[in-house]
Amino acid sequence: MKPIALLPGRPWPLGATWDGQGINFAVFSAHAQAMALCLFDSTGTQEVSQLMLPAHTNDVWHGYLPGAMPGQIYGLRAHGFWRPDRGHRFNPHKLLLDPYAREVVGDFEWRDAHFGADRRHPLHMDTRDNAAFALKARVVHDAFDWQGDQPPCVPLEDTVLYELHVKGFSKLNPQLPQALRGSYAGLGHPASLAHLKRLGVTSVSLLPVHYALDEERLAALGLRNYWGYNTLAFFAPNPRLACGQDGLNPRDEFRAMVRALHAQGIEVLLDVVFNHTAESDGTGPSLSFRGLDNASYYRHPPESLAAFENHSGCGNTLDIRQPRVLQLVMDSLRYWVESMHVDGFRFDLAPVLGRGDHGFEPGAAFFAAVAQDPVLSQVKMIAEPWDIGPGGYQVGNFPRGWLEWNDQFRDAMRGFWLQDEHGARTRGDFALRLCASSDLYQPRRRAPAVSVNYVVSHDGFTLRDLVSYDARHNQANGEDNRDGHGHNLSTNCGIEGDTDDAQINALRGRLQRALLATALLAQGTPMLCAGDELAHSQRGNNNPYCQDNETTWIDWTKADNDLTDFTAWVLSLRCQLLPFGNRWYSGLTDTLGLHDLSWLDSRGQLLQGLAWQDNSERVLGCLIGHPGRARAPLLLLVNPDAAAHDFLLPAGVWQAVLDTAHPRGAARWQGQGEAPLKLQAHSLVLLAAAGNKIALQR
Questions:
Q1: What residues are labeled active site?
Q2: Which end of the chain is more exposed for a tag (fewer CB within 10 A), N or C?
Q3: Among residues 10, 5, 7, 101, which one has the least CA distance to residue 58?
Q4: What pLDDT, in 10s, does the model give residues 261-279?
Q5: CB-CB contact of 619 with 647 (8 Å)
């Protein structure tokens, strides 16, 4: 066999790049003393060659292999000091995955040999070689026929987010071929697209699709990290979510899904996890980053470099302060936009990305890099604005241009409609959150649309369970029901779970519809959690991150079709009328004497002073003199109480276009103002003044 020799190659781009005549390899490590490239046979199990990367430029080790072709499987071995006390954990006995891997080879199994330290003697290096069963990278040549695909570029004021899990969304949908269910191809199937179009959502927000691992504890219990918030490879799509339709690899199956969604005008956003990796804490394995340059990739307490800062709750925190770690994040994001055609991102525990030496910084390097980037500055960027580190709650503090999940909207609206342990939320709470939380965003000159309004997300009870269970039921998660949020809000139902009692079910239905309508009509950007429009239940499990089974998979055979029709009608009204524009309202009058926004009590009088905090009456009216898209004023009425109330309407001719007391939201009332309208218990009604043109309800 002819000896293999590496040429110096280039220090860029990072990763493995085929140029048509050979492959360039480049990997960052600021503290390694040498870096070995290990080549494997086509099965990925037999190491056939180990070559030292011959060049070292600006902390990048690099080499060029002439004649090598896409499909080559490889791994890395980093040589350096084993000094955990100084932050260094180099162990050349461990094969490491390239952080820039586009495709990951192998099925990971937890073995002691994956750990750089001896598990019985943590200060000592483990000298067992794990190459035969370590994860490896495959060199790819990215070429895909996009067939003229273009991004939908949905304007922010028209955006309706739909959060879903690729597998759970279609796994049990009988309208799909069995082979496609639960996959990228399943989401791109016409039956899935038809449901999304029927609803009227504009943008799917996918739970993580990056290559991720199951934690060792879950694997021992026979469970999986179903949600996928445990990333190992930030450039590789998770093969578990691919079905291999038409022989496509996971990358191309994902791309075909994106192309199909774009053809329907639907954007694709990814939930990304750049706050930690799957290597866990100081007792975790050396799979990639830890072995390549532990001191650079992770944050360590200055007083104990062997330990890891843990602002994620998962054992480690990526150190975005380091330029090459920041580059990794930016390169990954650009790859998914440019090569995979995604339209934006939702960042898990996003304050980590803005943590400097002394806490969260809105002007941190990551935010500055995104703002000036010609690619990333043009896509949607959404923050989950909290982590578990010091000063980690940063709702309202992200830079301009960023959207934020607004948990204050969630909590206020749940408390208003369902009541919490502290009693009912006031009309003041409701009004403040309904109008895009002006206290959080207006002083910072941020637009109302940056408030992502939701009452339910993947993390917690489903909407159906929110109105059905008083406490969590998480026993199946293997943590003795200690995980997840403790108690739910009181629904005044008095019992848990499903029941044949028509009155109780009717109440639950009303509460679901009131919560949905509030979130979908409010000022800001609405987000719907997949399955809530179908009354999907997880049987009270409010933390099913490890339940890859019927607990989390949407059961389409039990869908509440009335609730689906209701949701579609509310979104149709939002699209047609856009009740609130993407501008801040002042309450002032225009030249015709019409208030742009005013708040009324049940007598039709302006709500003022202490009445905002008076819970003896919680009925409220919002008169929108200048809606976002409607041609004439709109009137939104809410009654969270258990009894019906009369509401005296303002002068004019009004037509009810939505009544959440009806299972499908149907509303037929119309008449003159200055007369009372019966507002049913636990209901919301939207009325349009004469002059508005509204398409017939679907």
A1: 348, 384
A2: N
A3: 10
A4: 999 999 999 999 999 999 9
A5: yes
Integer Cα distance of 73 and 61 in angstroms: 18
Among 57, 67, 69, which Cα is nearest to 12's?
57
Compute and round to an integer the Cα radius of gyration of the chain.
Answer: 27
Look up residue 398 and give its two tokens: 């992200």
Residues for the chain: how many in total?
A: 698
Q: What is the DSSP letter of 26?
A: E
**Per-residue tokens: 433:** 């959150």
Tokens of 34: 């040498």
Residue 385 to residue 407: CA distance in whole angstroms: 9
Amino acid 495: pLDDT: 43
> What is the rounded CA–CA span in Å between residue 111 and residue 287?
12
Does pLDDT of 494 surpass 70? no
Q: What mean pLDDT is predicted for residues 156-169?
A: 98
What letter represents residue 245's amino acid? Answer: Q
What gap in Å lies between CA 40 and CA 50, rounded to an integer? 9
In this predicted structure, what is the pLDDT of residue 615? 86
Domains of the chain: 15-138 (2.60.40.10), 157-275+319-577 (3.20.20.80), 597-689 (2.60.40.1180)
pLDDT at 692: 82
Nearest Cα to Cα of residue 101 among 223, 238, 201: 238
Nearest to 266 by CA among 180, 336, 205, 345: 205
Q: Is the pLDDT of residue 352 over 50?
A: yes
Q: Is the pLDDT of residue 355 over 80?
A: yes
3-state class of 270 per DSSP? strand
What is the SS3 assignment for 626-657?
A: CCCCCCCCEEEEEECCCCCEEEECCCCEEEEE
Cα 350 to chain centroid, rounded: 11
β-sheet bridge partners, residue 347 = 272, 383
Q: Tokens standing for 640?
A: 């969270």
Cα 16 to Cα 25: distance, rounded to the nearest angstrom: 5
Q: Let me know: does 616 contact 602? Beta carbons within 8 Å.
A: no
Which pair of structure tokens corresponds to residue 289? 């980053």
Q: Of 175, 179, 103, nearest to 138 (Cα)?
A: 103
Confidence class for position 472, pLDDT limits 50, 70, 90: very high
Rounded to an integer, what distance in angstroms lies between the CA atom of residue 371 and that of residue 376?
8
What local confidence, expressed as pLDDT, does residue 25 receive? Answer: 98
Q: What is the average pLDDT across 589-606?
A: 88
The per-residue pLDDT of the chain, averaged, comes to 95
pLDDT at 616: 86
pLDDT tens digits along 506-541: 999 999 999 999 999 999 999 999 999 999 999 999
Query: How many whole angstroms separate alpha carbon 241 and alpha carbon 249?
Result: 11
- Give the CA count within 13 Å in the CB-facing half-sphere of 262: 20
